[in-house]
Amino acid sequence: PPCGADLGGSIAALKVTEEQRALVHAVLVDGVNAAVSAVPGAGKSTVALELAKLAVACGRNVGIVTYSSAMKDESRHKKLAALRRRGVEAYSFDAMCRSVFELDCMTTSEHMRAPLQAGTRMQSLGFDLLIVDEAQDMNALHMRFLRAYAAAHGSVQAAVSVDERPCGYTYANDGDVRANADILVHAAAHFEGIAD
User: Which residues on neighbouring strands pair with residue 159, listed in sequence order?
Assistant: First the structure.
C-alpha cells in the first residue's frame, strides 16, 4: 500500500535532485511501479537506499535484490546495514532463490531453472515493495524468477534501477537474449501479480 501524503516532508528533505525526489514520491505516495535508467554514478543505488529507508518508516516491507554484491562500497554498505536493522532484507538473486525455494540455487545453473519449471512452491519473503538494483545485469532467468515470485505472492510493487548503455546489450550469461527496457518500464503489463 502507498504511504500517506504526510511523508512529503521527509521526501522534501532528501539530499537528492528534484527528479529523484519526484521518483521517490511517485513510488511511495502514488504507489506506482518505477524503472530508472541513468548513467553509472547518477545516484540510482543511493536513491534506492533512501527509498527503502522511507518505505520502512511508513510501514512497508521492503526487499532489495541485485545481480551481485553491487552495493558493497563503504557508504552504501553502512546505509544498507542500518536498513537491515530496520528489517530491510538485501539479496543477490541466488540468495533470494535459496530463501524462497529453500534450495541451494546458483543463477548460472539448473538450480534456479528446475524449480521454476516444476512449479515448486515459493516461500513468501513478505515484501510489498521489491527494489531491484543494477537490473541491467539480470538475465532472462532472473526475470522469470521475479515474475514467478510476484505472481505467487500477490501484489508486489517494484522499483528498478538500470545503468544506461551506449549500445544494445544482452542479458548477462544468457546468450543472445536481448535486454528489453519495455519489460522494466512497464513491469505491471508484463508480470502478473505486480501492482500498478
Answer: 34, 131
